[in-house]
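Before going further, learn to read the protein records used in this course. Taken together, the tokens spell out the fold as the letters spell out the chain. A record is reproduced here so that you can trace the correspondence yourselves:

***
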Amino acid sequence: MRPFWWNWPSWAVELPTGGGLQLALHAWGTAHPVWLYWLVGVALSLVYELWLDRHGWSWRDVLQRLFGQLLGELAWVTLGG
């Protein structure tokens, strides 16, 4: 039996993942410049897509995760992080 999230649309997984990734990178330390969080987040996303994703490579997943990072950044700024 497949997990219940197996048939979820890609955006329902990638957007929150990107947002969580961005917030986790901010929790790593606030002394780092924002561009470093973006760079590390994109690098981790590419590593995941290239070598770990069981469904294979997808630019769509990378871009949806990047958009999620943007939402995470907006949440960080809005919440006064």
User: Anything to note?
Assistant: DSSP finds three helices and no strands in the chain. The chain has one domain: 11-78.
